[in-house]
Amino acid sequence: MSLADLAKLVFVSAIWGSAFIFLRVAVPEMGMWLTSILRASLASVALVTFTTLAGLPMQWRRNFRHFAIIGFFGNVVPFVTFSFAALHIPAAHSAVLNSTVPLFGALLSVVFLAERLTMRMLLGLLLGIAGVAILVGAGSLLLNAAILMAVAVCLLGAMAVALASIIVKKTGNGGGIHPIVMAAGSLALGSAAMLPALPFSLPAAMPSSVAWTCTVAVALVSTGLAQAMFISLILKIGPTRAMSATFLLPLFSMLWGILFLREAVGAATLIGAMVVLAAMGLVLTAPRPQRVVSVVEAEIKA
């Protein structure tokens, strides 16, 4: 990995990690559905405008299927799940749970790409589960149904991001879709899919200017800019290495939480984060299994 790619990876982690802070402020006032809709809509408008000015053809008819698949798994599912989680758990916890993306990426590669699960990868997956258990069970949170549901949907969102990353690698290279076009199109269709929920998601009172500012920031910075850069990294260095950007998310999220929300970071949170990061290290340093059959690729080309 070049120094430029490494710098881009760290920068993506920093702005991606800020999303959890913005959500913690915006969602209680805006609601999880309105926040998710505005997040996808504003980001898509910004990126589609950029592609138009830059002369990048969207080719909606040709790329519609790709945009729809990535829009659902890469935007709708994680946006809604992590917005829900923002109502119940601290930003640092959401970030640590989101850092399980590479674990799901390794597991989904076995399921969809017919790759063999090595012992090192299996140990990494088990260690990752242990890290999440430490984070949730030994933390300062008072466990209840809402907390457990928030943890579950965060893991669902992380799995969706991992699946989207695998599909992006296949569609991006094979279809020759520009990273910014991919991000713009998937966000546009993702926002369109959520629009039917808009009439039922309006807040009872006008949100504060701070909530609006955080919503715009999470849309333009933590989503539009971050996704365009992340997709370009996937196509250049591969999904596994690109997904390692999530390793740094807990660190940046904890930093932003301490600085801006004065969130307390306990020992259990730090230990759980370190165990999850150790699990990621095992998965990433495992020998790359040889692919036998690419089910995802076959489905996309069908």
TrEMBL record:
Matching entries from Pfam families are given as: EamA
* Cellular localisation: Membrane
Key word Transmembrane present: yes
User: Which InterPro entries does the record associate with it?
Assistant: AA-Vitamin_Transporters (IPR050638), EamA_dom (IPR000620), EmrE-like (IPR037185)
Which UniProt keywords are given for this protein, alphabetically ordered? Membrane, Transmembrane, Transmembrane helix
Q: What is its main location?
A: membrane
Q: Where are the transmembrane segments?
A: 7-27, 33-55, 67-89, 95-114, 121-141, 147-168, 180-198, 210-235, 242-261, 267-286
Q: Which residues form the EamA domain?
A: 10-136, 150-284
Its placement in the membrane is given as: Multi-pass membrane protein
One Gene Ontology cellular component term attached to this UniProt record is: membrane
- UniProt protein name: DMT family transporter
Record the organism: Noviherbaspirillum sedimenti
Taxonomic lineage from the root: Bacteria, Pseudomonadati, Pseudomonadota, Betaproteobacteria, Burkholderiales
